[in-house]
Amino acid sequence: MTSSSSPTPRPTSSSSSSSSSSSSSNKGFLGTVGFLLFLGAVSGLLHEWLGWIRLFGFLRFLVPSGQEVFGYAVMAVLGLALSASADRLSRRGRG
To answer: Domain residues for 49?
Structure first.
């Protein structure tokens, strides 16, 4: 009873490469959405406080009437959180 002592190579699966490509697209999507949300919220806050021109007018539909400052502040925090999670995902993929 002699057996081969060399380990048999494992077949590579294509699912690992497809999951890494979808993961990188998710990171890019999260980072882009987070950045746009943050930038739009800061633009909305500047518009509310200083009366400047609103750059991202579509975000005004997400904020309830009478709660503009609070709504834009929440969107700014959410945008930062999305950007930070995208950054964390990219660091996890590298290490």
So the answer is: 37-94
